[in-house]
Amino acid sequence: MKVRFAVGPDRGWLSSSTLLDFAGAIETAGFDGVWLSDLPVAPTLDPLLGIALLTGRTTRLRLGANVVPLGRNPFVLAKQLAQLDQVSDGRLLLTFVTGVNQLGEREALGIAGATRGELLEQALGIARGFWAGEAVDHNSGHFSASGLRLPIRPVQDPLEVWLGGRGPKALERAGRIADGWLGAQLTPAEAGRAREQIQLAAAHVGREVDREHFGMSIAYARTDPDPELLRTIQERRPDIDPRELIPVGAEALQSLLEQYIGAGLSKFVIRPGTPVGSWTAEAEWLAGAMLDLQT
């Protein structure tokens, strides 16, 4: 398997200078890519805006984003993503997610009372139709179109979209329609079982997810994890000690990554669990801790 690492920034607002310093340090250190997350009601930069900025200031990095398609106009979103793939010369990576259900998120996205999983499937199907150059016919309470075509196409054909999630419905959906899966807050053993469940769901509809297309998003700490991060993970995974999911120090980070690789995962997004003072220093530390595993 080709093991690849992308790095995400620490949470919070990213100024243009901070974002450029971050991406420049990660590219110089030799990582495969950077990854930005969509948190609709948090004070974080929209990942599409961030990637647009980075396309002209990086040359090699893959540019990844978790995107919440819910609440976005599917035609406009498909066009924006196709354009980002064009201006980045085909370096765009995508995961569609349903959000983290923060207080006020559903109302902000205009989906109060709706089934987020079903809306995500609709958005993905519509976007794929547009990217394939098809005339899209769709009529629902959230979007209607009759014979509408996208005026442009992405560079990548197809432009792949991975899905996330760890519940039974999310894993079944990933197997049925996704190009890959990027999980989070699962132990290596749990991630291995999730991969198996996804492939079973894929086989049930006569398909198979590429064995190279399974990954994990991991928060790490160089010393003590942020108490707020521990609290957040504890809320989402009350059944385990959150410290099981946050490696502390270089040795623990490499050991955990090796366990995930042993479970059949090969693509990783690594995120600092504490604020970063210097991305040059952080990238150098990360490179020393894990880049010998990148193949």
Give structural notes:
- The protein is of the alpha/beta class.
- 41% of the residues lie in helices and 16% in strands.
- An eight-stranded parallel β-sheet has the order 7-4-3-2-1-10-9-8.
- The model has no long low-confidence stretch (mean pLDDT 94).
Task: Tell me the helix content.
Answer: 40-55%
Order of helices and strands: EHEHEHEHHEEEHEHEHHEH
Rg over CA atoms, rounded to whole Å, is: 19 Å
Low-confidence sequence ranges? none
Summed over residues and divided by their number, the pLDDT gives a mean of 94
**What's the tally of helices?**
10
Beta-strand residue fraction: 15-25%
The termini sit apart by 8 Å
Strand tally is 10
Major sheet: 8 strands, parallel
The order of strands across the largest sheet is: 7-4-3-2-1-10-9-8
Set down the secondary structure blueprint.
Blueprint: E1 4-7, H1 16-29, E2 33-37, H2 47-55, E3 62-67, H3 74-87, E4 92-96, H4 105-109, H5 116-131, E5 136-139, E6 144-148, E7 162-163, H6 168-177, E8 181-184, H7 188-204, E9 214-220, H8 227-236, H9 250-262, E10 267-272, H10 279-290
Parallel strand pairs: 1-2, 1-10, 2-3, 3-4, 4-7, 8-9, 9-10
Antiparallel strand pairs: 5-6
Helix pairs in contact: 1-10, 2-3, 3-5, 6-7, 7-9, 9-10
